[in-house]
Design a protein that fits this description.
It is built from 13 helices and 20 strands. Helix 7 links the parallel strand 17 and strand 18. Helix 3 packs across helix 4.
Length: 445
């Protein structure tokens, strides 16, 4: 988590890391922001003509005149997709892609296999559309006819193979990881990638890959436990907690994301990925364990997942040292030149709309916004700081005032445990390991 630095110190740190770090691939925050702002946004709503409980998939393709070809195995036409957006039911969709000319389609995935099978209701043949760099196309309304079918293959997962060189024909969603089995000890899951996620957030999307990773093949007999890191964080920080949970009952997943981008977009992304994983694997129970800013991302995700799917899958949420009231240091970065500001710092400002929306319903923030009743909420937080520290009490990074925001404490009616550790060491502490195992074992009887 970003330390409590003066504005001068933040500027100095930014300049040193951004401009003095080795490697020609290192881009300045300004260039990362410009790259991100050059993408286009395509947003709208999708629904079926007749109400259904089946998933709905929206498809995006580049309209180059060569987006369709014949499948060599089936002899049927197929679409070369650049992205897809899964919905557990009717609702919004959004794509983030390079500018160009597009075509869009949608279908009702009646057997939840992420493949369009002839006979499933489908909407296709819509006019192509253009979106200029940095532009937004909003308000698209897609209605999938009930009596419709095509002799075409939409194999969503097969079409999402990532290739770094395919720069002209991608959407950022195409680089999303959806359940790839990996080794946690791999270098890409360490500190260097965590730093890249904060300072070089666009590079992170291509060089590391944002999404949900598995440590083993999915096992329907084991309950997923999803770990979510904080700002500049990385999955290896959870190694002790992952190793110590009951591996006969639980399977560890982790969400790796560029922590320098806006947190609302990150929680949207996590919502989409988990929705798709649920559709694919059919699990109906899971737990979420988050550290630091990851707690904010996770709470936002849990709220959205419930509101969008009405599924009761997330039974437990454990937040460790999360800044529910934000960071005063983050508020100070607003005085920096705009092109040096990491987006997530703005969301960490105590008065940001993102923080307000965690506990109060937008857009007017007048009504309380609570976690769903089926999600048991637990908190842990540290209070150890250096002997020479001064100022408000905290864990040497965050203040106790922020970590013990009254709305969070009141909602953590299952447990709120203070521990004598600093901000990072708490993740390796014997007490945190023990408490997490107690929570998991008691919650999934």
């Amino acid at each position: 988590m970003l330390r409590r630095l003066s504005v001068f110190a933040i500027v100095a740190t930014t300049l040193v890391i951004v401009f003095c770090a080795p490697g020609c691939a290192l881009l300045a925050v300004k260039e990362q922001r410009e790259a991100l702002q050059s993408f286009v946004k395509i947003r709208g709503n999708v629904r079926t003509e007749k109400p259904t409980r089946n998933p709905v998939i929206v498809l995006l393709a580049r309209a180059t005149g060569a987006t369709e070809e014949v499948d060599p195995d089936t002899g049927r036409r197929r679409m070369n997709l650049i992205d897809h957006f899964p919905r557990a039911r009717s609702g919004h969709f959004a794509f983030f892609a390079q500018a160009g000319t597009f075509r869009i389609a949608a279908f009702e995935d009646r057997n939840s296999n992420l493949i369009y099978d002839p006979g499933e209701p489908v909407l296709a043949g819509l006019p192509d559309f253009d979106v200029a760099p940095g532009g937004t196309l909003d308000g698209i309304e897609l209605v999938i006819p009930h009596d419709s079918s095509l002799e075409i293959v939409f194999d969503v997962l097969a079409e999402q193979a990532r290739t770094f060189k395919d720069q002209q024909n991608f959407s950022l969603g195409r680089f999303t990881v959806r359940g790839e089995v990996v080794d946690l000890d791999a270098a890409k899951f360490g500190m260097e990638s965590g730093q890249m996620g904060m300072w070089r957030f666009v590079d992170f999307l291509f060089e590391v890959g944002a999404g949900v990773y598995f440590l083993e093949q999915y096992d329907p007999n084991k309950i997923p436990v999803l770990f979510v890191h904080g700002i500049s964080g990385f999955p290896q920080q959870f190694s002790t907690l992952m190793e110590k949970i009951d591996r006969n009952r639980f399977q560890s997943w982790f969400y790796f994301y560029p922590s320098g981008v806006h947190l609302d977009g990150i929680s949207n992304h996590l919502t989409d990925v988990v929705t798709e994983l649920q559709s694919k694997h059919g699990f109906d129970e899971m737990a979420v364990v988050a550290h630091s800013m990851g707690g904010l991302v996770s709470r936002s995700f849990i709220l959205k997942y419930w509101e969008q799917t009405k599924r009761r899958d997330i039974k437990v949420f454990v937040a460790i040292s999360s800044p529910w009231a934000g960071s005063e240091s983050a508020a100070g970065v607003e005085r920096l030149p705009e092109d040096l500001i990491v987006y997530s710092w703005l969301d960490m400002s105590p008065k940001s709309d993102f923080l307000r929306a965690l506990f109060h319903q937008p857009p007017d923030f007048q009504r309380a916004r609570s976690l769903p009743s089926h999600t048991k909420f637990h908190m842990m937080y540290g209070f150890k700081r250096n002997a020479g520290s001064f100022g408000p009490s905290g864990d040497n990074v965050l203040t106790l005032k922020s970590m013990t925001r009254i709305e969070a404490i009141e909602e953590a009616d299952y447990s709120a445990l203070p521990l004598d550790y600093n901000h990072v060491d708490i993740l390796q502490s014997r007490e945190a390991v023990h408490r997490l195992n107690v929570i998991l074992n008691e919650s999934f009887n």
